[in-house]
Write a structure and sequence with these properties.
By secondary structure, this protein is α/β, with parallel strands linked by helices. It contains 14 helices and 18 strands. It has a 5-stranded parallel β-sheet, sandwiched between helices. Strands 16-15-14-17-18 form a 5-stranded parallel β-sheet. A 4-stranded parallel β-sheet has the order 10-9-8-11. The chain is globular, with a radius of gyration of 21 Å. The mean pLDDT is about 95.
């Protein structure tokens, strides 16, 4: 069995499981941001009269979309989640300014290897980089099975193994490779499959960069994504948790796969996801020269400390291009503090950037980042669907931090290799 199958077997009380088998497994952590929490609570309170929560300690709420509610309705929605958490003694509520949900949860040491983690957020598979099985579920399933029974109804997925090898070109970042994979497989290329990211390229990445891959598993229809745990995984998780009391469930040597895909990263140029979908991925030349209005480092797939360092490095003694609004959104409070201590924000502030509170940034434009008609944005965000960040005729391009930096300096989408 592979890592995913071993976790599903253990949590459902079985010695082994087969792809296609349906199991009811114990869930260790149920995660919801402010929007999904509000919907799940309504299901629980309005459709499940008299129900009780089996284990409130397994529930996590994180306010990352409405990090500074601008309307009475938004404020009331957050207040209702706070009241629910207090009434049901849910101990893990990360309030406004906590950061992007999954980064806040990992930073707090709540996610461990061997766990089953479910979330009402499509990027929940990110925890596969830590040796956990993690997947998204619907609001009704979360309320009825998760809250009440502490379990989930799951079909064991077949696994596609993606073997990455080779050395990348100059100017090519892990985000370019993860984005390339989405375009290569297509947005329906791995429906209900587990995606294993493997090979020398993945093994050489640090865990924070590995996380970009399972985080985007949903973009190709995947049920989950994971990296077979190794010593890097163990060391990373131990640093987060402050202890080593966890079990790494690893693949058996002779694994079985529905498909194996080989990717030579040395042939991949810098990539950009063009409107209107995350799967419309092309080499950077396809968009070079497009004038931009907004550049952003932030979101579930951005705002890491390494991303902010990259940006600050290239803006030292330079200015944001005229007419461009550069937005910097740390993914967690810990990242914000580290960037503050390193002087990264001072460099970026002097360059003309705007620093925002830890959150998911302009994702869905609840508190920031809305675009007017015909405006163009380039960012490290995870989604670029029409209307998601404002006017449906606005255009949103997704790229690596280095590409965002090059574009914010030039005022047009630029090849990141111009900075090297």
């Amino acid at each position: 069995m592979n890592m995913v199958e071993k976790i599903l077997a253990k949590k459902s009380g079985k010695s082994l499981v087969e792809p296609g088998e349906v199991v009811v497994a114990g869930v260790d952590l149920m995660v919801m941001h402010d929007l999904s929490a509000s919907f799940v609570i309504k299901v629980f309170e309005n459709e499940m009269e008299g129900a009780t929560i089996k284990d409130p300690s397994r529930i996590v709420f994180a306010f990352d979309h409405n990090f500074a509610p601008a309307t009475r309705e938004a404020a009331e929605a957050l207040a209702s989640v706070r009241r629910f958490a207090a009434r049901h003694r849910v101990p893990n509520l990360f309030d406004c300014g906590c950061g992007s949900i999954h980064h806040a949860i990992m930073e707090a040491g709540l996610a461990s290897p061997g766990m089953i983690i479910t979330g009402c957020d499509s990027h929940t598979p990110i925890y596969g980089a830590l040796g956990a099985f993690a997947t998204g579920v619907g609001n009704n399933s979360m309320a009825a099975l998760g809250f009440v029974h502490g379990s989930g109804w799951l079909k064991v997925p077949e696994t596609i193994r993606i073997h990455f090898h080779g050395s990348t070109m100059d100017g090519v970042a892990p985000r370019d490779i993860s984005q390339y994979l989405v375009g290569f497989l297509g947005e329906d290329g791995a429906i209900y499959k587990a995606l294993e990211y493997a090979g020398p390229y993945i093994e050489n990445l640090d865990v924070a960069d590995r996380a970009l891959f399972p985080l985007q598993a949903i973009d190709v229809g995947g049920k989950c994504g994971f990296v077979n745990p190794d010593q890097k995984t163990a060391d990373y998780v131990k640093a987060l948790l402050g202890h080593g009391n966890f079990e790494l469930l690893r693949n058996d040597p002779e694994g079985r796969y529905a498909q194996t895909i080989d990717i030579d990263v040395s042939k991949i140029e810098p990539q950009i996801a063009c409107p209107p979908t995350v799967g419309n991925v092309k080499p950077i030349d396809a968009a070079v020269g497009t004038p931009i209005n907004v550049a952003e480092i932030g979101g579930s797939t951005g705002g890491r400390l390494s991303d902010i360092r990259t940006l600050a490095k290239h803006f030292a003694n330079k200015k944001v291009a005229p007419g461009v609004r550069l937005q910097v959104v740390p993914a967690s409070r810990g990242i914000y503090l580290a960037a503050l201590r390193e002087g990264l924000f001072e460099t970026l502030h002097v360059a003309g950037a705007n620093i925002f509170p830890p959150s998911c940034g302009s994702n869905q434009a609840f508190n920031m980042g809305a675009l007017a008609e015909e405006e163009v944005m380039i960012s490290t965000q995870a989604r670029n669907f029409p209307g998601r960040n404002g006017h449906p005729k606005a255009r949103h391009f997704l790229a690596s931090p280095l590409t965002v930096a090059a574009s914010a300096l030039s005022g047009r989408i630029a090849d990141p290799r111009t900075l090297l």
